[in-house]
Request: fold
Amino acid sequence: MARVAFVGLGVMGYPMAGHLVGAGHEVTVWNRSRPRADEWLVEHPGGRVAASPRDAAAAGDLVLMCVGDDASVLSVLSAPDGVLDGAAPGSVVVDHTTVSADTARRAGAACAAAGVGFLDAPVSGGQAGAVNGTLTVMVGGESADFARVDDVVAAYGAKRRLLGPVGAGQLAKMVNQICIAGVVQGLAEGVAFALRTGQDVDAVFDTIGAGAAGSWQMANRHATMAADSFEFGFAVEHMRKDLGNTLAEARAAGAALPLTALVDQFYAEVWQAGGRRWDTSSLITRLPRTRPEDS
Amino acid sequence: MARVAFVGLGVMGYPMAGHLVGAGHEVTVWNRSRPRADEWLVEHPGGRVAASPRDAAAAGDLVLMCVGDDASVLSVLSAPDGVLDGAAPGSVVVDHTTVSADTARRAGAACAAAGVGFLDAPVSGGQAGAVNGTLTVMVGGESADFARVDDVVAAYGAKRRLLGPVGAGQLAKMVNQICIAGVVQGLAEGVAFALRTGQDVDAVFDTIGAGAAGSWQMANRHATMAADSFEFGFAVEHMRKDLGNTLAEARAAGAALPLTALVDQFYAEVWQAGGRRWDTSSLITRLPRTRPEDS
Reply:
């Protein structure tokens, strides 16, 4: 069993840190909002709460992080009383936040300067994956560091894979979000077209779901899209953050993402229409989808 | 066992008609190009070749069709020596061609005027599905007609579903193509971005394939896309025909298909660049996908 620090008890980090306790690790948590950390401790009496990222890091041989955005990652690491003020040389930091590859490399460089290993390790699987411990973890960094943390991360990561040097995890997550942008907008148009032309949506998607048009999104989102139900899942504001980083990375690399760029703009429209916290499947709300004779 | 006519021995119809012989039906075929029909007969000595669509229809209680496009469907049915010159009142025509819903309704009306039942029944699953007898069949028409043909169509249609009145099969196939347009373009951008940023493509897609970005296209096409391999599958020229009908139907219904319309334009570019017969996954050829340092 390992001595583990977990920094950031958001909708993802809260259950992830809980799984570490469940796996028998000695877990010290820190959260920007202390009441949430105290709540976590009540639910996980085997754990401990630290007063700062520094104190949390000092209590662990591994530091796992899941915070909000690029600026938070760098500040939790390097600000006074940050992780790198407490982490012992030879320890390893694993950052589960979805950020830019550049932020991952900057975080990695800051860790390296302190003699600390660093892995960028964004996850997919959403809140449900965090709660159920079935996340997929896309990892960038050194294989020796990966080998040290893999068993621990397995407490919530059903699938973990080292994909290349620091930044490779973030680049893979970007591929994931690019593919989701296409499949969700295509599905939204398919559902909206089916509604507008008076089709039996469930029957149609049940029929085509196993074929070449099939996808996780089709299996899991066609019915909620058709029902205008979006109060769950991965929020539009987070998708816009991820697509912003992805489009910037593509610009720097000279890659073209015409559909992804367009869908990012569509999400801006959904946000403006009140959808900031809606699931990504809310792209359908932009499209005509009632029958003309019903409106 | 049934007396069945099969009209149209293209890459889909040829193996479909063969499965009918294999299932023990009395099969009479007609094909615009006679040598191809004779070749089919050599391979399926239990069958027969007719001299015209009329003669084929006269030899069957059911007439199954799979021809090239909207104009061919209407002319094979209604031109002199066409199917409706030979089909007995009370027989049923099943059209497997992917056409507009309007063409399906016109074909249905022509059949009805002759006292003949009609089902529009486009398929998905491609040439491999036709050869293996694992097609999905999306059907529109009367349930009594569907009940009469279902056992026969099962010879090559692993999944068959009546989805509504005449035209409903075509509308469902349009939903299928809309969803494919989104997922393929998204995947193309994901693969191109991965290549351009130097990622390990197989490792990345193996890692994300089981999650929320996953799709049939991702599982079956990411590697061929990355390898610039497109000499197989569903051709760009056929996809453009289907998207043309889909966009016209959407226009008439007041549905919006912004991504589908854009991808249709992308296919025009792929075609112009020599991709008329390439698989739909050739959308990636429009995108920068070598690393800058490699070019």
